[in-house]
Specification:
The chain is mainly alpha-helical and 422 residues long. It has one domain. The protein is built from 15 helices and no strands. Helix 5 packs across helix 10. 37% of the residues are buried.
């Protein structure tokens, strides 16, 4: 009887439900099946987001045909960096920083307790770069010349945009390679899964190097605007500040997105992952608190170093203090307290405050503290079409994330044959 039970268990463990794709016809049949909606499509989120997305797509076509002028945007010669650069790109890249931080922690430091969320984090980072690269296309006046920074327009290989463009492109490829084993498991391609799995560590190392470069590379654009950015924000060390802030910005997004995913996709997550999720949040909170304290300390040192203290007693100075105290120091202590008391509600609230602070910080560099001496009536304010297009990009990214998670082993356990390859 014991032998029969063991044989039964062995049969169950060897059961393979992976798709059998042997040719292109099998692939298209499988893909058409996967493209079909799952569950109720008339949810409140779908009913609200779909009209916004459709309207946004219409405005995108109009923008590509009509250019960057009104009524599409309120950009002008004084404020060339608007919402699409300030929020979609510069802020979005900071929020995507969780991918390189967690990859470093999991694959280099071998902190295995975070492995359960690594695939979702890498997917979120890859989609962020993919969609925010689209936002760059929208912000370029002659969008059909988007390839120029890649090749070095007029051989301008010393230009910051040449570096940023290549960092963006190569990092997207690195994240795609990191996520590719999940795609191979979804398609049931065992041999390809083994090959792609062997490339993961190399892609992680390459991706981490690229991340440190392009997080600070975007900040190099701000250095070029020395006479336009307020002295409280301008410093030659902006690249270092951008890199350090991307650590806690990215992990705050991981906490925020992961907490939502645990509720929305809770049926896909195994019991062990559910039990250890609080430990993951506590660990992430500790990293955030240390990084934020270091960032705050750097800001104070630079405040003195740049002789910017006299500017504190002004409207822009009060705004600066609100940013570094209300949205850096306060959530820093909240993260530390939440980690010490294992209070996940405090940790999640701190993550939201931190994300708001990052948005404010990046928008300060692109149009709030940019040309700060211009009267308020002449300042840049995002046009309604800019807001709708930005909302449509974010919602499309959420739809893509949801579609992938519902079909690929992102949060759920990989198939049995794939687990044997680890």
């Amino acid at each position: 009887m014991a032998g029969e039970k063991l044989d039964t268990v062995a049969i169950v463990e060897e059961k393979d439900d992976s798709p059998k794709i042997k040719n292109l016809s099998d692939f298209w049949t499988f893909l058409k099946k996967e493209l079909k909606p799952r569950g109720n499509i008339a949810t409140p989120f779908n009913l609200i987001s779909l009209p916004i997305m459709i309207l946004g797509y219409i405005f995108i076509v109009y923008r590509l045909a009509a250019g960057l002028g009104k009524p599409i945007t309120n950009l002008n010669q004084d404020f060339p960096w608007g919402l699409w650069i300030g929020f979609d790109v510069v802020t979005g890249v900071a929020f995507a920083g969780g991918a390189y931080v967690l990859c470093f922690v999991v694959y280099i430091l071998r902190a295995e307790k975070y492995h359960a969320i690594i695939r979702a984090t890498v997917l979120n980072g890859f989609l962020a770069y993919l969609f925010y690269a689209g936002a760059i296309v929208l912000d370029i006046g002659r969008w059909w010349n988007i390839y120029n920074p890649m090749i070095g327009n007029s051989f301008g290989v010393n230009a910051v945009m040449f570096l940023v463009a290549w960092h963006f492109f190569l990092y997207m490829l690195a994240e795609l390679v990191e996520f590719s084993p999940t795609i191979a498991e979804w398609l049931g391609m065992k041999r390809l899964r083994k090959i792609l799995g062997s490339l993961t560590l190399g892609a992680v190392v390459f991706g981490i190097c690229l991340s440190t470069l392009h997080q600070s590379g975007l900040a190099a654009l701000m250095i070029m605007a020395k006479n336009k950015i307020h002295p409280l924000w301008y410093t030659e060390f902006i690249p270092i500040l951008y890199f350090v802030s991307s650590i806690f910005a990215g992990l705050s997004m991981v906490i925020f997105e992961g907490s939502i995913s645990h509720k929305v996709f809770g049926d896909q997550i195994d019991e062990a992952h559910h039990k250890h999720y609080d430990d993951i949040l506590v660990g992430l909170a500790r990293i955030c608190s240390v990084a934020m304290f270091g960032y705050f300390f750097l800001k104070i040192i630079l405040l003195v170093h740049e002789h910017a203290v006299p500017y504190l007693n002004s409207p822009m100075g009060y705004w600066f203090l609100l940013e570094i105290i209300g949205f850096v120091l306060v959530p820093c202590f909240m993260f530390a307290h939440g980690a010490q008391q294992r209070n996940t509600s405090t940790i999640k609230f701190a993550a939201v405050i931190t994300m708001i602070g990052i948005i404010i910080n990046r928008l300060n560099y692109t149009f709030i503290a940019y040309n700060w001496y211009v009267p308020l009536s002449q300042k840049y304010w995002p046009a309604p079409m800019e807001l709708i297009i930005t909302a449509s990009i974010i919602l499309t990214e959420i739809w893509a994330f949801r579609w992938i998670v519902n079909r690929m082993p992102v949060l759920k356990e990989p198939p049995a044959w794939a687990r044997k390859l680890h």
